[in-house]
Amino acid sequence: MAPHDLRRPFKRPAISDQQRRREISLQRQAQNRRDAQQHARCLASTLLYLQFPQAEPASEPELELESVPEFQAEFGTELEVEFEASPREFDIRQASKLKGSQARKWFAGQLMLPEWMIDVPDQLAQDWYVFARPAGKRCFVVSTNGTTVSRLRNGSILNRFPSALPNGARARDASGSAQSYSILDCIFHESDQTYYVIDMVCWRGYSLYDCTAEFRFFWLNSKLAERSEWFYSKPFPICSPQRSWPEMPLLNHIPFSCIFHESDQTYYVIDMVCWRGYSLYDCTAEFRFFWLNSKLAETGACDQPSYYHRYRFCLVQVYNCDQAGLSAAYVPYVKDGLIFYNKHAHYQTGNTPLALVWKDENCSQYVIDTDSKGQIPSQQQVVLELQDNGNLTTSDDPPVVFGFLDEGFVQKSGLHPGNLLRFAISEGGLSFVDGKLARADLKYLGKSNRARAFADSYSKVVFQHMARHSPLQFDDLLASIGSSIDQEDKPSEVEMVG
Amino acid sequence: MAMEVTQILLNAQAVDGTVRKQAEESLKQFQEQNLPSFLLSLAGELSNEDKPVESRKLAGLILKNALDAKEQHRKLELVQRWLSLDTSAKAQIKAGLLKTLSSLAPDARSTASQVIAKVAGIELPHKQWPELIGALLSNIHQLPAHTRQATLETLGYVCEEVSPDVVDQDQVNKILTAVVQGMNASESNSDVRLVATRALYNALGFAQANFSNDMERDYIMRVVCEATLSPELKIRQAAFECLVAISSTYYEKLSPYIQDIFNITAKAVKEDEEPVALQAIEFWSSVCDEEIDILEEYGGDFTGDSDIPCFYFVKQALPVLVPMLLETLLKQEEDQDQDEGAWNIAMAGGTCLGLVAQTVGDDVVQLVMPFIEENITKPDWRQREAATYAFGSILEGPSPEKLIPLVNLALNFMLTALMKDPNNHVKDTTAWTLGRMFEFLHGSALETPIITQANIQQIITVLLQSMKDVPNVAEKACGALYFLAQGYEDAGSSSSPLTPFFQEIVQALLTVTHREDAGESRLRTAAYETLNEVVRCSTDETAPMVLQLVPLIMMELHQTLEAQKLSSDEREKQNELQGLLCGCLQVIIQKLGSSEPTKYVFMQYADQMMALFLRVFASRSATAHEEAMLAIGALAYAAGTDFAKYMSEFYRYLEMGLQNFEDYQVCAITVGVVGDICRALEDKILPYCDGVMTQLLKDLSSNQLHRSVKPPIFSCFGDIALAIGENFEKYLMYAMPMLQSAAELSAHISGADDDMLEYTNSLRNGILEAYSGIFQGFKGSSKTQLLMPYAPHVLQFLDSLYMEKDMDDAVSKTAIGVLGDLADTLGSNAGPLIQQSVSSRDFLNECLSSDDHLIRESAEWAKLAISRAISF
Q1: B-chain residues within 8 Å CB-CB of A92?
Q2: Omega of the bond prior to A398 within 30 degrees of 0, cis?
Q3: Could you tell me which of B433, B539, B432, B448 has the C-alpha nearest to residue B485?
């Protein structure tokens, strides 16, 4: 007969911390798995809307630009709450109802926005790429249902045109699956009417057979990192104009993201967000650039413009950020500063310190911000967001507080939390203590241009401030490359960030 | 030959090691050369009255070991071996066994009983040996007492060995009749009466029908109650054990007997010897367990439809039950707090009082308070301790409104007692009671806090001081601090009241871990566990201090790895310490890794930390491996793609973990870590996938591996597929058939018990997560057509899950998600299949209107994906 199990002694500790650790780990893993699946599914849902912009023409957000409403009045509370809760995941049908500033905010949220370089990162030569930012408009290129749409940073439509991007023109048989997307991050250069592709985040499509072989080769290659390292030690081939549009039995919708260069009317593609459904959001920059180069040329998107391909797409030359690379990128031509990409950075929407922009007079016409008339104001101007508590903050996450408006002033001026306000930085300037902003001498100018979706970022304000007072020089960048090599063996120090 | 066997069996028990070893060797050879003849001669030896009892007994034991083993896979092998044995040999063996039941040697009889039960355990489920019960029970009344005893003992073992559904009701009736008659007061032989009582304990599970028959149930209950009054202690004890088993198996039938049972148990608790009194208390603990379960299940909302109504036996007995239990609290043993295994009437009484409080809630308080007030200040330590124990015991169950005023009054007294009481026993219980106060009555969910700005300083000072007391008191003080910290876990990133004391608390806990006597009363473990909880519940304010802990703990871990030439005892202690230190690092990694600024700084230690974890794998301790593995999983999650650089070195330990069938916890955790690494590395895990997949497939097909590891392995397939996308192609031909056959097995499990259903649902969830990951992984690839052949089966699986109606919410959520993933990836190709599927529409509609928002979310997704697949 089996002895009856003794009861667990009541006074002994009930907890086994090991069991608890195990359970917490399992919960974390299960949550991460759900997140990964949710992410994979969500990608399709987010793009689904982009795929059918014509489905509900009345609600196309870009048409609403002229009538920017106070969104408190315009939007039902419910919608607003859901939107605030999780902009990446919320229902696509609700996204299609977004208008005005909310719509712009949503689309603008899909781009990775570089911070301004206010100090030189460590390991610049080892961990970073550099490329010249073509002067032009940063945009997101989406080709869909036989048409290609580029959207500006603020979400408004720049161009709607046919392109050789998969499913970017009606010219081809569109009988195939429409479930494929690509998103490219570009700069449109107006004068040569070219989109310069600077990044690629996603690519989708079952049927582009001539991509498949390379795709397979690429993924099967276990030495990926070394190969792309090797690849990037040489400048990018710009494009191969001889290539013809490959025969594709099925054509797909493709969303992209670019900079439009007005003077040459070119989209410079700066990143690829989605390519044939493979989400590249979570890939490192290294990986995405490899893709960009290997895929884009083959589609014929780099070919000279034609009836079915109104604008040229170009790859931007990307260099390793060593002395040679930095100097090559710096060589003057019509461009707007340098962009630095951390090799390990994933495509992260919103402001990120892993992509940095830097300018001086030599490589940009727009070092110091101009006002709406193209004049440089005598005092630096900043745009800040008014918070519920009267604080004036930047667009960073978490926001940086620059100042405060008292309630009386807010009421008197008819301002509301969420308003974007323009200020001048007065004689007092910005003062810093231990590298942190301590005080800003602000003078209220008025509400900002209504087409703006965001306040300025902290790094932009500081960069502009430095540009006026003590700019970070190109020589500083070169010097840091030299010194960071010297310091390579230095043991890393622990920095407390309490 | 026969003579030889006797000698070998005797030699196998010789004092001389070489003789013994030789004998064991010859037995082994004999068994390998000719198994049937080996087993036959063993049975012959056991049944031969002329042989020495020592050789007969050993023959029986070897026979028993040839039929059963602890490890599940070995057990299955032995069952198959027996079933395939020559029938005539088996018949001879069984005849020999039955014959032995009438042997004059008690050891031979008893051994034969056990072997018969093992054979029955194998044969009855296969409808073999149908004559066994009849053979045992024929003319049982005419048998001599010693044979009757052996027969009843055999029936008891058989009932323990086989499940009730393989025995006909007719035979059950015969067994119960014989057993209950053997228990009856009219049975003059007390040995027979004892084995009959024990046999009833095992046979109770067979008596469903008999307990539904009033007359038969009355008879069984009367006989059991009478047996509790037997002059033999062992019979009384066994009879109370039967009552305990009846209280849980037939709770709903107890009503007519409960008054009598109360009288019997009260008398036993008061007057009987401890083994009997413990069982009498256990009866009430068991009734509490039942009522707590029932009340939990129905949430106090009973209707005529409820399966089992609550009879509120505990509530009705309360006025007499509580004083009876309080009385037991005064019967403490000296030094029971130092003895890990101690179990006595005072401990059982306190445990039961705690269960009573959980069962009846507020009502218990007024019955216990007078006892506390009367005894808490008495000079006799027993009274003070009993009063404190009583207070601690009722802190879970009654409402906070009822308890908080009392706790506010008592808190100061307890803090003083913890410092000043001269008796260790009282201090131990006091610290434990403080811990219970913090566990149940402190936290953000409670409106009126018992810990305030005014008293927190004093509480912490006292607890830290008490951590310098003797080990058992210090350990309880750590426990109290653990719950104190836990109460602040919702503080989030805002300020925590513990912040001003953080440094001091951590310092004190580290000091405890270094105490010479920290090995006693699991003090060191408690100190690390408390440190972990303090870290888990810390806020951003104290992140720099948590960060300072990292090099400290790493240094400690480093020192354990450097220790040389340890005795096996010392090594075991080192391994235990390594486990604790890895556990602590794991908690810190998870804490600091959860916010970007701290993660950035903390990751500078990642290389060194990883190197230490890898060295821990050199030890042979499963616990240390498990802890190191968990810590590495957390590190991979924090490091993301950067983790790739550790893979070449880490891989072999990963593989080792996946091969560890024996310590299946290690294997399970390693499987989880593979998932972490997939999500961290994504495609960079590809070079390691061949090895990992091979191992996982081996694990799945092994019958040695604990079944609980299998569902997570399926989920892990999904993680891998999601990470490597269409490169999963080459594994499809292996993984898919396995998923299919597991899916088929898990689709229909009618008649399974709750455990089996729970396991089946976790298996289904794993299978579905695998499908989800594979479909999503292939999404957008040119190879989606490779998945087409599997789609009908997946849809069929979803159909049958929907039809069976026994999925839990987690499975519903995953299942409807798979439907969406299938549609999403296969697109228009899957449209017709989905439209043909019998239940996908109903299933989807049901999920769309589910109360569970996670299910609704998945269903919305599936709806979207399906509408696209069907419209194209």
Answers
A1: 864
A2: yes
A3: B539
Q: Cα–Cα distance between A235 and A129 in angstroms, integer?
A: 11
Instruction: Report the pLDDT averaged over residues A115-126.
Output: 78
Cβ-Cβ contacts under 8 Å for B802 (sequence gap 6 or more): B815, B839, B842, B843
At B868, the amino acid letter reads: R
C-alpha B869/C-alpha A44 separation (Å) is 13
**Structure confidence at residue B93 (pLDDT):** 95
What is the pLDDT at residue A177? Answer: 37
Q: What span, in angstroms and rounded, lies between the C-alpha atoms of B386 and B365?
A: 15
CA distance A180 to chain B (A): 7
The secondary structure of residue A346, as a DSSP letter, is B
Structure tokens that stand for B867 in this block: 């509408």
Buried b (16+ CB within 10 A) or exposed e, B246-263: bbebbbeebeebeeebbe
pLDDT tens digits, A292-316: 665 665 555 656 666 666 777 776 6
Q: Looking at the DSSP assignment, which residues form a beta bridge with residue B329?
A: none
Q: What is the mean pLDDT of chain B?
A: 91
Dig out the tokens for B74 from the structure.
Answer: 């070995």
Inspect the interface and report whether the beta carbons of B686 and A48 lie closer than 8 Å.
no
CATH placement of domain A131-325: 3.30.470
Decide: A347 and A283 in contact? Cβ < 8 Å.
yes
Question: A422 to each of A385, A396, A407, B240, B360, how far by Cα in Å?
Answer: 9, 17, 18, 84, 66
Interchain CB contacts (distance < 8 Å): A and B: 180
A contacts of B828 (beta carbons < 8 Å): 177
More confident site: B246 or B563: B246
Amino acid B586 reads Q
Residue of A nearest to B677 (CA): A29
Please give the residue of chain A at the shortest CA–CA distance from B527. Answer: A17
The partner residue sitting opposite A33, judged by closest CB among B199, B675, B725, is B675
Local structure of B252: helix, strand or coil: helix
Which residues make Cβ contacts (< 8 Å) with residue A232, sequence separation at least 6? A129, A286, A289, A290, A318, A319, A320
Position with higher pLDDT, B564 vs B254: B254
Report ipTM for this prediction.
0.72
**Tens-digit pLDDT profile for residues B165-175:** 889 899 999 99
Q: Do A32 and B533 touch (CB under 8 A)?
A: no
- pTM comes to 0.66
CA distances from B806 to B119, B800, B848, B850 (A): 35, 10, 18, 15
Going from N- to C-terminal start, the domains of chain A cover 131-325
Degrees (nearest 5) of the Cα angle A77, A36, B677?
145
Cα B774 from Cα B725, distance rounded (Å): 7
Q: How far is CA A22 from the centre of its chain?
A: 37
Question: Residue B627 carries which side chain, given as an amino acid letter?
Answer: E
Beta A335-342 vs A128-134: how paired, if at all?
antiparallel
Q: What is the pLDDT of residue A182?
A: 60
Q: What residue ranges in A72-212 does DSSP mark as E strands?
A: 112-116, 128-134, 137-144, 147-152, 157-161, 182-191, 194-204
Distance CA A361, CA A216 (A): 45
Distance CA A390, CA A433 (A): 23
Is the CB of A284 less than 8 angstroms away from the CB of B676? no
Across the range A8-30, mean pLDDT stands at 74
CB spacing of A216 vs B861 below 8 angstroms: no
Residue A115 distance to chain B (closest CA, Å): 17
Q: How far is CA A92 from CA A98, A447, B11, B101, in A?
A: 10, 31, 82, 78
Nearest in space to B474 (alpha carbons), one of B428, B437, B436: B428
- Mean pLDDT over residues B766-770, rounded? 95
Instruction: Please tell me the distance in Å from A170's CA to the nearest CA on chain B.
Output: 18
The whole-number pLDDT of residue A245 equals: 25
